């Protein structure tokens, strides 16, 4: 692993629309973010992941990039962005940007050029079929909007045309290019030019959107050989030209690390370890993961799948653990603030690079049935503005019409929690500060000692032993720790070594040395 700073990085994810509005127009912006850098630092974070900040018509929250070389004027000027970056760096905070490699906005100039009726230099930059009248099997497409004779393949929403990185298996040679074709290689070089542009400007790396989506007909998520080949080529470019830059993928599969990513998000996909730990629900919506206090989860299932993932990746990269993200329901109100502490403590004391989604440090809640804005759909409820205080719009904006309704909550705001020693906010600070004091947590030493149903989960990080009890009742883990073992960090009441093992109080988390 060439990169060093990632090892001790703790990220804060900012959804720029929702963080802090400096000019009262109802949208968050660069100046607003700059004004809150000290706050982010005070949490113990030393890195930021910024959701898309590019020029965009915002038909998918900015994941539809119109101009890859320009910032969105919604968030301020080019100079405001540079100031944000420079100020973050001056405070010792790295900033990674969101790279959207697979698709552009339908308003992207290169795409519009490719959509013209006669061939031109952009004709092969995007994937187009050669028949406007039929729909190719296995793809989402758009036809009847442009005069080019064919239909455009889209990656996600119909506003997001797929860039042409080629196909691994070519079924229809009349319009599908090999991923080794000249056209596909040109797209790859264009992507490198986008990356160089932002790295030269000071960015510290990228979170890569839908990283596994580049090459079509490329097999299972856990394989994707041609897509992986492209990323390894890009990683080689970084290693030689920008050795400090990092790539964090939205892939959610150990294959991402084999493809050259420094880290990969473990998302809440079905059957993923993270789901088993805190995200799984049954058909009726009842929680059935380990941290659901109804006793329906299974620590063993988590441990088995986590171990498999970790073993495949630990020598070459990191797993990124998230409290949540802009696509995922927040953990609150499903979990109480007490439970959130246990979850955060467990997630971040397992081997990982921590990512805190803005507002999770104060327990902001997923807002049900929020009317969709900019195609957030059900994701909109996780994107409500940051709750800073009890002022107008929770201190987020002075506008009479912020872009999303704001929740004003007496307890769930930064100002109130700053004052309260026992708040979730101050807990998060203590947790991250504690994590930082112990090298064990950023090592690859991990041994699961006990994992059975809803019984306490016990694991070792080097000489430290961690005991978690997710239930509302006292439980004893049949595990011996030295009678002199000292509890050095705890959530709730400390667990105690006893004759039968370790007695863990209800809803508790203890680290023994
Ligand atoms: C990723 C993003 C999501 C976006 C999608 C399409 O999953 O996280 O917000 O809608 O890609 O770019
Ligand atoms: Ca603004």
Short description:
This protein is of the alpha/beta class. The chain is built from 12 helices and 20 strands.
The secondary-structure class comes to: alpha/beta
Helical proportion, percent range: 10-25%
The count of DSSP E runs of length 2 or more, i.e. the number of strands, is: 20
CATH first level of the largest domain: Alpha Beta
Write the layout of secondary structure elements.
Layout: E1 11-14, H1 30-35, H2 37-43, E2 47-50, E3 54-55, E4 67-71, H3 78-90, E5 94-99, H4 109-114, E6 140-142, E7 152-154, H5 182-200, E8 205-208, H6 225-241, E9 246-249, H7 255-258, E10 263-265, H8 273-279, H9 299-313, E11 318-322, H10 337-349, E12 353-357, H11 414-419, H12 424-437, E13 447-450, E14 457-461, E15 464-469, E16 475-477, E17 487-491, E18 496-498, E19 501-504, E20 508-512
Parallel strand pairs: 1-2, 1-12, 2-5, 5-8, 8-9, 9-10, 10-11, 11-12
Antiparallel strand pairs: 3-4, 6-7, 13-14, 14-15, 15-20, 16-19, 17-20, 18-19
This protein binds alpha-D-glucopyranose and calcium ion.
Alpha-D-glucopyranose binds at residues 60-61, 63, 100, 156, 209-210, 250, 326-327.
Verbal overview:
- This protein starts with 10 loop residues before the first strand and ends with a strand.
- The strands form 5 sheets. An 8-stranded parallel beta barrel has the order 1-2-5-8-9-10-11-12. Strands 13-14-15-20-17 form a 5-stranded antiparallel sheet. The chain has a 3-stranded antiparallel sheet with strand order 16-19-18, with no helix packed on it.
- The chain has 3 domains: 5-101 and 184-440, Glycosidases (TIM Barrel, Alpha-Beta Barrel); 103-162, Oligo-1,6-glucosidase, domain 2, CATH 3.90.400; 445-512, Golgi alpha-mannosidase II (Immunoglobulin-like, Sandwich).
- By secondary structure, it is α/β, with parallel strands linked by helices.
- The protein is built from 12 helices and 20 strands.
- Helix 8 packs antiparallel against helix 9 (299-313) and helix 10 (337-349) runs parallel beside helix 12.
- The chain has helices at 30-35, 37-43, 78-90, 109-114, 182-200, 225-241, 255-258, 273-279, 299-313, 337-349, 414-419, 424-437; strands spanning 11-14, 47-50, 54-55, 67-71, 94-99, 140-142, 152-154, 205-208, 246-249, 263-265, 318-322, 353-357, 447-450, 457-461, 464-469, 475-477, 487-491, 496-498, 501-504, 508-512.
- It binds alpha-D-glucopyranose (GLC) and calcium ion.
- Alpha-D-glucopyranose binds at residues 60-61, 63, 100, 156, 209-210, 250, 326-327.
- Calcium ion (CA) is lined by residues 21-23, 25, 27, 29.
């Amino acid at each position: 692993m060439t990169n060093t700073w990632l090892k001790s990085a703790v990220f804060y994810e900012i959804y720029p629309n929702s963080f802090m509005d400096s000019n009262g127009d109802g949208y968050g912006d660069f100046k607003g973010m700059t004004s809150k850098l000290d706050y982010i630092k005070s949490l113990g974070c030393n890195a930021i992941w910024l959701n898309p900040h590019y020029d965009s018509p915002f038909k998918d929250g900015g994941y539809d990039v119109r101009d890859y070389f320009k910032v969105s004027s919604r968030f301020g000027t080019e100079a405001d962005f540079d100031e944000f970056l420079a100020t973050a760096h001056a405070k010792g905070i790295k900033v990674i940007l969101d790279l959207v490699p697979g698709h552009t906005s339908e308003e992207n100039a290169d795409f519009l050029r490719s959509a013209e009726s006669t061939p031109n230099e952009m004709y092969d930059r995007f994937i187009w079929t050669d028949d406007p009248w039929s729909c190719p099997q296995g793809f989402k497409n758009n036809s009847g909007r442009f005069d080019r004779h064919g239909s455009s393949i889209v990656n996600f929403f119909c506003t997001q045309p797929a860039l042409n990185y080629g196909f691994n298996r070519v079924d229809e040679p009349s319009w599908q290019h090999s991923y080794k074709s000249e056209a596909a290689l040109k797209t790859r070089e264009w992507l490198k030019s986008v990356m160089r542009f932002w790295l030269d400007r000071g960015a510290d790396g990228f979170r890569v959107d839908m990283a596994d989506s580049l090459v079509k007909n490329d097999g299972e998520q856990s394989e994707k050989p041609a897509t992986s080949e492209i990323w390894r080529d890009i990683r080689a470019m970084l290693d030689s030209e920008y050795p400090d830059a990092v790539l964090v993928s939205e892939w959610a599969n150990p294959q991402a690390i084999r493809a050259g990513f420094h880290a990969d998000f473990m998302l809440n996909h079905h059957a993923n370890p993270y789901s088993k730990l805190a995200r799984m629900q049954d058909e009726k919506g009842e929680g059935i993961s380990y941290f659901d206090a109804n006793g329906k989860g299974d620590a063993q299932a988590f441990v088995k799948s986590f171990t498999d993932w970790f073993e495949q990746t630990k020598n070459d990269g990191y797993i990124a653990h998230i409290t949540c993200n802009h696509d995922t329901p927040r953990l609150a109100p499903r979990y109480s603030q007490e439970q959130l502490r246990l979850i955060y403590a467990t997630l971040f004391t397992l081997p990982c690079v921590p990512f805190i989604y803005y507002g999770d440090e104060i327990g902001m809640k997923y807002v049900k049935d929020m009317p969709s804005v900019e195609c957030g759909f059900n994701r909109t409820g996780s994107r409500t503005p940051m709750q800073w205080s009890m002022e107008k719009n929770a201190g987020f904006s002075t506008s009479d019409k912020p872009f999303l309704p704001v929740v004003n909550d007496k307890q769930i705001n930064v100002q109130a929690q700053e004052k309260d020693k026992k708040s979730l906010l101050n807990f998060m600070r203590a947790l991250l500060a504690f994590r930082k004091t112990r090298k064990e947590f950023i090592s690859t030493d991990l041994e699961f000692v006990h994992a059975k149903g809803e019984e306490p989960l016990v694991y070792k990080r080097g000489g430290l032993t961690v005991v978690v009890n997710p239930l509302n009742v006292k439980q004893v883990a049949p595990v011996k720790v030295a009678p002199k073992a000292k509890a050095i960090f705890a959530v709730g009441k400390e667990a105690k070594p006893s004759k039968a093992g370790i007695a863990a109080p209800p809803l508790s988390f203890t680290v023994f040395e």
